[in-house]
Amino acid sequence: MSATTLTLDAAKKASINLVEDPAKGLQALHETVVAYRANRRQGTASTKTRNEVAGSGKKLWNQKGTGRARMGSVRSPIWRGGGVVWGPRPRDYSKKIPQKIKSLALRRALTSRIEDGDVLTTANFSIQDGKTKSFIKTLSGLTDAKKVLVLASAFDETTFLSGRNVANVQLLNAADVNAEHLLNFAKIVVVGDALEILAKRTA
Hints:
This protein has 203 residues and is α/β, with parallel strands linked by helices. Helices cover 33% and strands 10% of the residues.
């Protein structure tokens, strides 16, 4: 089993719609990746204000006559165990990106990776015995990169299970890949008719 580097000419023959202008799509790619990462944030970080923290409301000492600074509450932010000023509160970090921007970002990312020679194609990628050792051996025959994204139209269960525990390797259906996936790996291996799916998605 061997892999061939996907060139720009080969990509065009496969009907993949590439971005010809080097400057086009960079902003769309940036905004899309930021949105993907923001949408994964839970937004559950929270601190308590002086109104929420536990503690007595009693005035600690007299306003005057003690020689000490005036103090009204043990829940004051300047006291240990008091409330937090401008701390994080639960919020929604999600961002909405138009479908046209996502599509442009995907095309820009794919074009850049093809130009850099980081996209490989192979006719078949299947692990018959379902062993992780066999998966690593097969993948190392295609590329020596440490972070690899393998794209296919679909993976059989045996192949998927054999590769799920391999660090820095991800098996993904071509219909589900996005711009962030294409940027996160050193090499991208496209299996069989996954090129046709990418062509339809970049049309």
